[in-house]
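Subject: mismatched residue count in predicted assembly?

I count 745 residues in my input, but I want to confirm that the predicted structure covers every chain. Input:
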Amino acid sequence: MSLILSSAPHVRSKDNTQRLMLNVIISLLPCVAAGIYYFGWRAALVVCVSVVSAVAAEFIWQKLARKKVRVYDLSAVVTGLLIGLIVPPSAPWWMLVIGSFFAIMVVKQLFGGIGDNFLNPALAARAVLLASWPALMTSGYNVGKFDAVSGATPLLSGASVADLLLGNVTGAVGETCKIAILLGFAWLLFTRTIRWEIPVISLASACLLGWALGYDPLTTVLSGGLLFGAVYMATDYVTTPMTQFARILYSVGIGVIVVLIRKFGSYPEGVTYAILLMNIAAPLFDRIPAQRIYGHTKATKEGK
Amino acid sequence: MKATFRGGVHPAHGSKRPTQALAIRDFVSDTVQIVMNMNIGAPSKPCVKKGDHVKLGQVIGEAVGGLGIPVHASVSGEVVAVDAIAYLTGEPAQSVTIKNDFQDEWEELHPLGNVESVDPALILPAIKAAGICGMGGASFPTHVKLTIAPDKKCEYILANGAECETHITCDDRLMQEHATRVVDGLRAAMRALNVSQGIIGIEDNKPAAIAAMEKACQGRQGVRVQVLKTKYPQGGEKQLIKVLTGREVPSGGLPIDCGCVVLNVGTCAAIADAIIDGKPVIDRVCTVTGAVRSPANLRLRIGTITEDIIGECGGYSTDPGKIFFGGAMTGLCLPNDQLPMSKSTNGIVVMTKEEAVSAEEDPCIRCGKCVDACPIGLNPYDMKIFADAEKWDVCKKKHVMDCMLCGACAFICPARRWLTPSFRIAKQKIAEQAKKEAAAK
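Triage response: the counts match. Full output below for your records.
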């Protein structure tokens, strides 16, 4: 009889990395569907090109660097999907390929691969694309159902709440239909893939500050990429804080910076930069020893 | 209201415990091998030799040192071997093998009678003489636990019936079938220490045990049942104390430092047996489950060989891949099925070859689930980085010594990282270092 000897625990939770990534992919499907509904076949193409190039980038890097190929963990699929959903529906294919390769190779793999990147790969890619091809990244929304609409960014137009909820406004492929995003959020919570704190607190703090600065709280949440960013980008495991107190600081920071950029910045939308800035701050927040440890009191600390 | 603690996981969520509905039945095998290092502390010294005839309950191993306990024959019959054995802890110890004559001829017993009328001064010596050590798994000598230093005061005795581990149902069945014994044992410990409050903590997935214990508590002085939320590690000593009393064991301290003593319900029942009947520990209830044909709750004589126990449960249902004593969260693996169970063996779980395969370690994705799960409030991902780098001093600064090795972080980790095993090593290394430093001074 040959028995395996190992150290406890002898059972593991069913949720491994691949399964968590799969949950994120499933949660993004309503957004993909909404994008295709509103923007037509171009949206499908944009998403496909980003996903395929992100997975290819991951595979090529791991082969070239002679690392273990971890494409099966599905994290590159998530990155590709996210990139495809935060660009304009008419984004040219080469721009998507560059974005995906940058996200995977530079932002993720150069820093050590999954778990070691300090920026959200998809958002960092968007920032680079925005800086490199500002015209392509801020126009080209008017395809599919919006063919005839002349271009104003959704933030500046006075769309109704119903239009904002349904996504009947122009915008990035996956960011417009808020109902689809909320469906995805519900799935992520139901499967315990993410915790509620980061999206809810960052949205709440954006609302509060926005309200203080004279914005309508509901429009603050429903316009632009805030909801998508709060649900899918701000909750990226790797680039968010690990401890509860740090998570709250991080979430409040995102909400505040988004509103400040909207109010005082020259960009119409600040979600990308707000989250990237807080990504950088996350490891610092984690160093704040705010967590109470069982059995530690002032007395035991002083005694040592 | 169901009380609970911070963090924790649900390892048995959705899984059935087939043995919960099965009554305890006796199993006596024709040979037992009784090891001398069942307790924490020095192994006992065998005081019988090959060829001796021993009676049931006769002392066959004498207590050695302050933490020592005596070991008793669990069957009557002939001693066929006294030899060395490599037991689970890895440290060599002696064992006594007895061929059962099935006469169950008892050694002369000295019952002390009703736990409410016995002279309290006689209780601790009786517990020591009965060879009782923690039956929840830790096997700490009970009489030592109940010996309170003069500068300390015990205000609560907590009976641990949480049974939060996966698979195991022996405490559940014991509470259902022998509720009065558990209360008697708790009362005996309370009287020995002159403590007025005794609380029995039970998770809410054991309604029958809760009902039985509540009934047994009626009319008894100072004892009550507290229902707990079902969550692992609810039965951890530190968590139980926090939930039942609102107090915390100071870091590096013992429960008595916050006025508490925690006894497993099986230990309580053993205390009652020792006082009321004068019986030493010769058997215990043990859950046998997993890949066996008919899982069971067995009352086993101490020293029953695993292979015989599996045979009593209908044999393996498929090729075994892993066997461990205890639950899946903290259980100790067996190298083969020839080893005997001991006083602290509350469960024997057989895993199939497929279940036994350990997943490969993936990179940490910093999801923070380990931080949320840690019942102590530590940052396992962070400690793991420094444990992997063998920076033990940094691990210590990050409070690895407060880790109780419950396994919650490793269970929940999506990257399948070996968190708990790393912390076990870190704790050993730090303890060794401290010993060296103490020796150098």
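Chain A has 14 helices and no strands. Marking this ticket as 'not a bug'.
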